[in-house]
User: Fold these one by one.
Assistant:
Number 1:
Amino acid sequence: MKPYAVPAALTACVAVSLVMLVLEPVPGGRHYEYALLQALALTAVWGLSAVGPRTFFGKRTLAAVLLCGLALGAVNLAVLRPDPEIVRAYGTVFEALEAGRNPYTSGTIYHEIESVGPVFGDFNYPPLEIYPYYLAYRIAGAWNTTVLTVTLVVIQALCFIILLRMFHGIRPVLFLPFLPLILLGEVKTNVAMTFLVASLIFWLIKKDLETPRPLRGRLIAVLFGLGLMTKFLVLPLMAAYYARTLAAKGRRALGLVGVDVSIALGTAFLVMAPFGVLDVLKSTVLFNVVLDERAVLTTFYPNILSGPLAWLGLQALYPFAAFGVLALAVLVASRLEVFSAMLASSFVFLIVATTPEPQFLPVLVFLVAVAQGMALERDMAAKEGLARPAEAVRGGHPPAPARKAVIAAGLATLCLAVSSAPARAETGPSSIGGPDPGVPFRLVNHPSRAGPSFAGFSLSPPRVPADPPGLLREALRSETVSKPRPKKIRAWIELGAFATIVTLNYWASNSFPEDRDFGLDLDSQMSRVIGLEGWRFDSNQFSLNWSHIMGGAVYYQFGRSNRLSWFYSWMMSLAGSTWWEVIGEPKEVISINDQIMTGLGGFSVGEPWYQIGHFLCHQSSLVLRGLSFLNPVVKLNDWLDRKDPAAKEYAPPGWYEFSLFAGARRLAADGAADTDAYLGLRAGLLSLPEYARPGEVRRAVKDTYYSEISLDYALRGGHAEETRFFSKAVTWGRFAQRIDGRGNGYSLTVGLGSAFELFKKRPLAVYDAQPVPVKTDPGSLHLDEPRNFTDKLAILHVAGPVLDWTVFRRGLKLRTVVEAYGDFALVNSNAVNEFSLSHDVAGLKTIVFYYGYYYGFGGTLRAAARLDYRGLRIHGLVDLGAWGSADRLDRFQEEVTNNAHLSDTRVRSLLGAGWKVPGSPLELFFEIEGVRRRGWLAEVRVDRFESKVYAGLAWHF
């Protein structure tokens, strides 16, 4: 690519848009200035990409970014309206979903055309643009501009966290100027999910450039597939990435790229499937490329390609012209470095898009920043090694006057472009990235692969002492003990043997004959697996479905106990689950819920099970070592490795707590009260050796650093009135700690958590205690009586951020944990019993009709605090959860005549205290808990509250 090609092309774009602004030639076209502002903003982004990394991270550039971000954020917040089009559009989407209608075919979705007014049609964003906002709506219990804005800010905050995680060797303070631009750069409409997925893609590509691993390629493909289900900026990014791969590796990479593209498209296909693939494609892709169709539902803002073609009356040629220009750009850019290729393709995409899309400009700034950050890291590695003086990135030589003017004017134009864009356009920049040491990142360069990066997470300039203080030095040595070699072959042999045994047992026992839906012939299996006819939510009882997570935990142990990483072990649990669903039980549906529970849930239960079992195996106490048999797989492989000296090495955790407890519980609900016996166990493990020790630590944590398991029962008359099981693991985070010699200071971790919670009340009805297999004996359901299902929940908190902050002061320790998760849950409908008093339940979803629960998607927000002072402990917890039913892909979908949407919420609060008896392991405790459950089914709404009081004695060991 010639050095002048990019500025020449951008100049032509500015000229075309300026001509259209002056002549306004397109009938029905409005706001021609948007195309001009976008062209000028692209010129500014190119200017940022053309300077060296020292200039990019210099004080002048960062000050300009900060000022632009603050100004843009202020403007965006000032122009927010209480009833914009996007809020009304999503409101009608939620109404359609709750009425059991498909928003891509309902014809009830709100749109608005300037000078015409409201029109109604189908939803025209891809499916992943529904879920986060619907979840926010369910959690907030309302939908308005405030809820939308808060949701956008939260998602864009995650992008900033990703930005900080990407670079270990650059001071975080250099990225703080981008924070206002990321959080508030776009709060008028919904680009946040595209921004989040693109950020994750850039991060994984950077990691793969530094240390290539085949698994990362698969993960990138999955993210591209998810990104295609947000807004379409991900399309040119994906095309450029794979075209660049083929150009770099030649024909030998064709098969690999084909597999990755298939994974991406398959992922997108699965996301679209619940709404109908053809319906989604028609309402999104075709809607955006056929100009005449698009003008029916939305205002047409002429862009640099679509405007002239509409002016000439050649609208029908637009899809072909746009595709051709973009494809040519991708092919030409494939000769560039990967991030340069992605940036060039994105430039062309914004130029050939139907309308100007300034909301995507922050993603491009993020991409430029990724490349510039990489260049800066290499420069540091080449010149200073591990240590880097602060002045290394403070200035640098100023750019040439022309480039300096382009950057200054362009950043101002970028703010203007985004803030004056239509309500459907958005933004939210960020920063990081770059190629060779000292070599400016350019669209015309082809730099070498990235070099190594260096750790250093800090909210202030890092201090890297040559010789850490004694306790910290000891802790660091203990964490870097020699580790036994991972044993992948043995892990897969154990997994294969276990899978074979359970498969043979399944066939020998002729289990679940009522679930035989498919034959063993090739046509049936092709339809089942490839044709997706077998991909359904199954119709099994609650106890069977939640317990699949334990199978995933067992699969997980085979990898983890053979010293494989938590991520690799997680993939083994997914592999074991897929084997079982596809091969192990070929006559049954491929259960979507079982795949989620077994595969994704393997980590949330399997990791704490492994960590605690591994800890117990290395204790000196006979009692604790005896308890290690609670994880037989860990115990087996520990014995097999008994002759390996490295297997005996173990870094002790910074904190742990194990306790058994017993006492009494008083439950009050619906005007009645009962007293039960109460007993259980709790185990918690914080595996950071430096935790609570004097010294300063700032580092990344790649392995699991927090594990928790708890189990408790409330017993009455020999029956378990309530059962609760909870498991949680937190990994892949940042650890920052500063504690002085007197023990005063703080400890902070931010990581990725996953958890599982089971809650179950004792069933009262026979059909709830002993579920009736579907389609067998409906008489056992006693349909002449109202339903009497008791409450039950199995919640897989799939993943989410976890912040853990501890303050140490004069013997006092205050620990606060805040966490948020996306959930898949088996939820007992709180409203189904009330619904059955006045409605026929026979047409409801299969598992609601038979078992009273449904498969739900939603989220949970939890905050907890604990204060320890000498022998006194005070703790509290607030837990907010909301879930809505999956309304498609029922095993017997065609027989569901009343596909009403179900939704439930739970608010749980707890306050407690404990006092440890001096000189003993005993603790007296007292707790008060309140639980409010709300449920909706059609027009029926039920609200229940119960309070619980606990008192008893705990033994800590």
Number 2:
Amino acid sequence: MFKPLLFLSLLVPFCLAGQQTNILSTNALAEQILLGNYDPADYVPATSNPAPAALAAELHAQISPDSLRTSILRLSTFGNRNSGSDTLSATTGIGAARRWVYQKFAEFSTASDGRLVPSYLQFDQDICAVGQHRNIFAVLPGTDLTRRGVILLEGHIDSRCEGLCDTACLAEGIEDNATGTALVIELARVMSQFSYPNTLVFVVTIAEEQGLLGAEAFAEYVQQRSIPLRAVLNSDVIGGIICGKTSSPPSCSGLNDIDSTSVRMFSSGGFNSRNKQLARFIKLEYRENILPMAAVPMNLRVMSPEDRTGRGGDHIPFREHGYTAMRFTSANEHGDASVGPDYIDRQHSSRDVLGTDTDNNGAVDSFFVDFNYLARNTVINANAAAMAAYGVPTPVDFTGSRLGNQLTVNIIDTAQVGAYRVALRSVSADWDTVYTLVGATTGTFPCNATGGLFLSVGAVNAEGVESLFSGEKIIGAASATQEPGGQTGQNIRLLPNKPNPFDEATWLSFWVNEVPVYHQANLQITDMQGKPVATLPVRLQAGLNEMLYTHGYGVRGTFTYALVIDGHSVEARQMVFAN
């Protein structure tokens, strides 16, 4: 995965010159489908689609650890998939690798009676001394043009070793990111057997390691052509289970720690973030559709930051272009990609290979990737994308009020689907409770009598499929616009940090009833001896104000955070670092 731009700044003049230009789909049909210019009757599968619950079961049953393993083994044979590597060879380099992915998409198209339409997204940009590049993608047309929408699943294929543009080194890039590429290929194989109201796009990007450039080109393409992109699910470093000596936090606890049952979901924002709402939706769909049949339950962790500390991934360009996006990453990573002289971990090195030959017979028999774990993560992607692709319309609006430990919600829904989900969140990044409301648009539900509440709603169609959820509203003691627990006459109030307990980052927030005249404001963090730890400049706005504070992995202890305006401390609170 991409190392921060600070690391790349000295390399920009010779390997990252200019912006993407001449962005185009090499298959005109793929583009016309994305634009909605097609007849859905031309893409009806030969057999009828199963009901949503049965579809989830089919996806779960058909995703294969062996198929994922076969793809990863094949990806390892290309030797070096750097974005600047060979494009002409039939056996090595990024050119051979992307042609192989395209061929896999073409095979799946044949198996699905031509319903899956493969293409390249070509663009011009000087990256590692190569001027033209290609993402690989395949489009599965939606069956309902009255609810046009696109769900995009992505993973990057490019690899690297210690040198950013080194095309001669061994750069198999197994964990980073043959695993994500294999996941997208497997999704295309299995999901193209069925149909969905919304269009699915399976994307394998390049130039992630040089600055998320392939994803940036695709996001720019989508925006230029006004393609109705509803959600992006990015998978990067998604099959390893072994912790390295170093690891980008929030991550694993120490060298050789094993975790094959957790996956991290990173997304941007705090309160009212549609990216976080997507991550919560994914977890809800897993819990209700897949968990009851899962032989090995998975723990889906909704993380506070958009990515690991100092790192980035291909979901970020889509978010920057205004689209809803999130990232899946293994609980454990083998390295933080620092690639310094004392760096011994695998990530971003020639050591990111399949595994080891323990019996010296010339064949790898101990793998660094857990193919069953990767399959479980593929199922999570497939189920969430399938349910989102039903395109159930989100309610137009809602209101909420709280009296004691009772919450009354009124949902405004022009589609009148007849059933709804009501989600409540308090101190964590995840929903605390999700209620169901049937046969009415107004309902009363139990809730905490004190403390802040964040409320959002979704609609449920006749087949039991949820919409993506609405934005959040803050629910106070009397209305959806009042700051929770506010005190009469208190213009600015510092709120408890969220989540609490938390991962290695936490949201510090405060409520402003009316913005005062001021010159400078900041949040100051100090230890219990009063020693300054961090100062975060803030801009006061009416309503809820939030700032993500990353304290660093492994920090423990009690600290104080205070809102300081023009040298005067308005209010202070304590928080405990527990990881």
Number 3:
Amino acid sequence: MFVVSALIYPCVLSLLCIGTGLLVDRASGGWLPGMLLPAVGAGALIAVSQLTTYLTPLAPATPYALTAIAVAGWAFGWPRARTMARAWPSRFGWQLAVPALAYCVALAPVLLAGRPSFSSFGVLGDSAFHLLGADYLMRHGQDYAHLDLLGSYGQYIHAYYATGYPSGADTLFGGSAFILGAPLIWTMQPFNAFMLATAAGPLWVLARRIGLAGAWAALATLTATVPALVYGYELIASVKEIVALTMILTLGALVVVHPRWLRRGAAGAIPFALVLAGGFAALGAGFGAWGLAAVAVLSAVAIRDLAAGRQPAGRLIALIGAGAAVLFVGALSTWADLSRSVQVARGIASTSDSGNLQAGLRTAQVAGTWLVGSYERVPTGGLHAVSYAIVIVTLAAAVLGVLRIVYMGEHALAGWLALTIAIWIGLGVFATTWVNAKAIMLTSPVVVLMAWGGFAALRACAHRPGARAAALALAVALAGGIGLSDAMQYHGSNLAPTARYDELGSLNGRFAGRGPTLYGDFDEYALYQLRNLDVGGLDFLYPPAGLRLMTGHGYPIDLDRIPPAALVAYPLIVTRRDPTASEPPSAYRLVWQGTYYQVWARREGAPAAIAHLGLASTRPVACAAIRRLAGVAATHGAHLVAAVPPQRVSVAVEEGMHPAWRYTHPGLVMTGAGRLQSTFATPHAGVWDIWLKGQLMPTVDIGVDGRSIASLGGQVDGNPHNPDDMTPVRVRLAAGRHRLTIARGGFSLAPGAGGWAILHEIVLTPADAPDVDTLRVTPSAQWRALCGGRFDWIEVVPE
């Protein structure tokens, strides 16, 4: 699957986008620069996928429609494609290399991990909703009338997509991935990386326009494609923003090459209109700000040409009419639901919810360099000073670059740059923290490119003393600052656990149609992986109706807090394997168990318990509590059922010996190299399973009594405050005391080596005993037999 998702899928996307770009080029008169073909093709494919999903009976045919259009483009555009292919290796090598390099940089954590995954796992759950939406739109289109709003699945789809939420990026993503039949969860990150790499095309056109060529144009394009903040957004799969960024930059490139098409006939407007449509479909009504900026510059050019007699009025009117018609059809679903699209944009612009941001982003981040492992944090110590020094140099170079652009007479480019900066400033002043962050990200490539314009200005003055050295120093600052910033984010990324999600996805086919299913873990990616089970999660943003608990979004789930009668509606419960957690009530039996998950099915005809008392299995239960339950049981002619937990041995984490690591609410944070040592005692000899709970992205070594027994890494959950249950490690032990060590190594270049490393709890259970509770049935008259026992829960169950 790694080869399919990371290598074959981007090749399929390239064929789709370039083929469609060739078709658009042919339809518009054959004037598109070669580097704009993929981006313009992507915009056209978004428009097509929006149309097929808007006409809901055609939604399942979307992958076929995208394929057919691309094949037609390759057929009609083959002469041009063959000419470019012959000339590219010798004349245009850098143009071919830069997007490929950008893709490799964007997907570096996954590529170097060598397994299908996605990066910065757990930072922002929105990518889970886009998976869900992309899948739904391919199967059902933009039809939401039949959704079941009682479960989490239906509520999520309705809250996001039935309210005017932009879906253009999702329809292109879903349609292209469905061609290969590849799981969306493993193609999501390659899609984002590809769309960001596609932005290298328009950036190349702009870099050439400011006077750069060859390797310098390639370096400028690459760094402007992956500045720190953009790279951070790509790592968390912010698909809307990444696709919108490509469309914004493509509009800028089309503005710059306006002499090629603005004075042509009506067909010349087709590429510009399709890119506008793609942007509106991807970002919603908010894209209008950047669309208006491009239109404003082109309007000024057209008025000037009209006044000078270089543009006949009739031809201009035909071009505007054709562009408007293509834009209307291409973004039909947006216009058909424009009021709600505007409402969504206003809601985002005015919300006080800052999402995953604890505080607003710094304005300095627009310069592309931010020397810290996450864009949410601020550099400290010497890195803080270096970051701001490079920021000052970058901004000064950007001013020089703008002066050079004006001096060169590139007034259209200067106007577009000025309006783009004005949009960013305006959003920063009037919009909220969340929108301001997006605006900074969308503006960052433009600022970096302007700084490279300053580099071009210094090179143009190479005859002046010190100018060449200053240009070289500026190039080192720009490329070095962005490169190091991206490397630090790569180092701190958390990769999604491949094996765990594959196992979860297998349940989707094994138990399809047997829901609704209650999901007992916080992981909103389960919405996609269990999409055929009508899954609901108690701590999801949208929990099942009637099961809203006080735990809150993202916190651990305690099944003991659910009234037994409320569970009758759920034939299945999916839980993580966790020897410290209570199993579901006695009405359920274990029907499947894997490495990470357990599936519990409700016994046919099983009545709901009359009462359910959750207990702390670490303490003996008091007789008074059992007496009260026995009274309820006697009244209803019922009996008592007690859940006897498996044998457990706890290992002290907080009290163990370790270096200067700190213990916080989630657990022991292993901030660097070191070793935890703790002791425990086993009551009998035998084979034991060691269970670690926490979050471990970097690999740690586990040892017992001085011998290494296993290594664990890449095991993370969706929230650092919700400990992950890791794969148990099996070891044979004698009875008595033992010493356990958990060692984290030093610096490593492995992806995610600087990610989460949190140890919450360690327990041991006998390997030859089931890690589930044993049910003990007791008549109500014999309730005293339960006094002083250790149980996970006791129920009153009808006879």
Number 4:
Amino acid sequence: MTDIKLKKMDNAIWVMEPHDTMKVPAYIFANDNLIGRMQKDRTLQQLKNVASLEGIINHASVMPDGHEGYGFPIGGVAAFDAETGLVSPGGVGYDINCTDGDTKVLLRHGSYIKIKEMENRLNENNAQFVDLQGHSIKEADIVYFMKRLEKAHIYEIKTRTGKKLRVTGDHPIYTKEGMKKAAEVTSTDNVAICGFSGVPYAFPSEEIVVDENKIRDALGSKKKSLGGNCITQVLNNLRKRGLATIKYTNPQLPYLAKVLGFVLGDGSISFLNGKKGVVWFYGKEDDLEKIREDIEKIGFTPSKVYKRTRNHAILTHYKEYKFVHVECSFKVSSSSFASLLVALGAPSGLKTSQAYVVPNWVFNAPLWIKRLFLAAFFGAEMSAPATLNRYNFYAPTLGMNKLESFEINAIDFLTQIKRLLAEFEVNTSPVQKVEGYRMRGKRGTTCGYRIQILPNPKNIVRFFKRVSFEYNNEKFRRACLGINYIRLKQKIKKLRSKTREQAITLYSTGHSPTEICTMLCSKYTPEQFLRHSMWTKFENKPRIAFNFMSFIEYCEKSALGPNGLAWDEIEEIKKIEFNDFVYDITIANDNHNFIANGVVVSNCGVRLLRTDLTEAQVRPKIKELCDALFKNVPSGVGSEGKIKISHEELDQAVVHGIDWALEKGYGRKEDKERTEEYGRMDGAKPDAVTPTAKKRGKSQFGTLGAGNHFLEIQVVDKIMNPEAAKAFGLYEGQITVMIHCGSRGYGHQICTDTIPPLLELAQKQNLWLPDKELVYAPIKAPEAQKYLDGMQCAVNYAFINRHVIAHWTRETFDQVFGKPTSEKMDLLYDVAHNIAKYEYHNVDNKRRKLIVHRKGATRAFPAGREELPPIYRSIGQPVLIPGSMGTSSYVLVGRPKGLDVSWGSTCHGAGRAMSRRDAIRSNDGKALTKELWEKNQIYVRATEPKVVAEEAPNAYKNVDDVVDSVAQAGISDIVAKLRPIGVVKG
């Protein structure tokens, strides 16, 4: 709650006098019913911050529907000089959605880094993300780092498997319903998680791993087979690739560490008969393709993958095994590549008949490089994760076969592997000789040794989550899922153990078995378990419940995609106080997500159509009409439009605005005259828009979206200003259609892509910010101009979006009521909500060009302004105020006083009073839909009940109070009240 002092200046106008850092006063437009709500959150503190910005002109203001946002309060208005002022994305409606600083971001090569440590280290790292189409894990460059100060609260989310994430309320998290803001996630949601966490990233040293002398030494014994000049050629080839001298900092070393580990298992190197060195790789086709990709990153060209059917006969200690399988393999025919691997420590020739060890450079490498070496070796050689009795995992086993003459070397090598695993706190068995591994072959008899990962649950989880497997996707997948499964199983075992102790204690204090069973019985602690607990002395802790799902059942139920992702249930969500920096990153990929603590985390306006239909004509067909609109106008989070265009066509569209749509046959010419800015802002430059934004935008033309966006059938319920109503073509009983939507993912992505450069500029120029959320740039800075170029593209996109939806709405009315109907469906007006615009205003009795920021506010110019279309210039600008679902909407008109106190601006809607998450908790969507129909005869057609719950009337302020406030303040007049009879929502 803020202690900021306000003074009542006029009817429904309050003033915050300049104090502390404020440069100008701040006006609050609110009647007595609304002012108290603004004093309970950060709305007024944010308004104070806006009034503290350098170069702000005259005053800042917030509308009665205003509430807490990021930087600017939603409903905020501010103006700056067009030549010397600034531009702030927060002032046109953009949020930086962040995590707390200790969040671990999963990087390429299976390491992680705390997000707060990335600020000056972007070039070192590449994040892992989830391809949301196939749910595979991939990697992409981190292109931007962002941070801001959060002084209020964040959300802490815990899952059943123990994942914990702390994020701001607007940070998207990937759920079964798609990306959902953290504040909207509920205990019924399932979120996507990755069990693997890796190890901390550490910057490698400049120490040399291998140089030309080591390469010469490694190949010295092979001069005869390689030929006299081969070593010189090898070194020349390696020099060209930057591989003749390799340091730990070399970007190719991580790939070489993996390849080396795999070659020690399922690879071979040979130098024969003076021919080129050849390296062979054997495995599953998909896994081999991943190795091929990495070899290309090292700088060499692999062959294609070969397939052949092979018959095998292996004579073991027990019996002879015969089998047939399709062998997949590929080779790299390069003496340089083979020589480099030998210099790094790989044996050439038959591995069972020679001694080799873990290379010393591996022991001196950072932990994450050691992991790559081990995980690739285990991908080739270690047993796959599997359960022996539905529930408990076998001990992962690593075996090694050597000719008996090299027995000591086998023991030494496995001992070195044990030593490496100990660095990951993974406990292993002693090296054990296994008679069953003994085999007789052409070169003699081999002996076999093995080590095992000790099979206690904590140890196996440590191994799976810190080391795991590389170059064997199925093993990695099972390990990731195994982590989750073991944690769920241990949670149930802990529950059973605690319940057993409670039962014993209650029994010892005189409670009857029946009473105890009544109190403690549950799915995993049934009556039989409780009675045995009371009557039998157990030395060991309880085993898992017989009815707990098996590992296979868990995989079938929860696995997501091919790479080990899984759905996890939310166990707890809580809002916690927070006063520290929060952080975010942007990756160079259209999916725009990353894996944080193992969890996958990732501009609007209104148009009003009037008809010549009455409520009596429409009400009998209201269900048919809404159902048809729901079908004909795509809506919802992932909706795609019916207009299919290329990136080039999209660029043309956002430059020309509504003119583009008119040329394509959408809408009418007179619609352009009744759209703010005539449906096109000058200055839109598609070159400022990234391919990512274009990809999101080109599929969403003509889509309603979700959240508070809607298409509503309304009745003109009451006329309050007959003169303006007549000019606007409104009369009581008339049917209107209100369309509320914006620039969809296109506009959001434009902001996402342009915010980071503004943050970097603020840091470089040491710009003073009253709040880190209020990032801005001087208007003449290239970063600011690029932002404006992109924002204008988004504004024009939104104009087109509403225009084509109106076109399909007219077609739908013809479909339901007969073809001539649409001919009399005229556009009353189309206004924008979130926008920064160049406008001329009087400042100190002089006409001055300003850039006016309106965030969740509407332009409301009075009569006489040249920006207004001729048909409305004598009466004033129509202003469209959508109410909450099930409540009235309003048409207003601008008043002259607004130019003096709000830069010709007014409210834009009812204004949220409850978060979407709280609304979902407080409302039953199905029940509300039924109630709206039975009590109010309002038919709601939505994608799902949750959408109805989060947009329930009680989630918003009283729209009557909101419009009453702007009317009392004299910044706009009420023209007409509109009552809903049908609602279509995404």
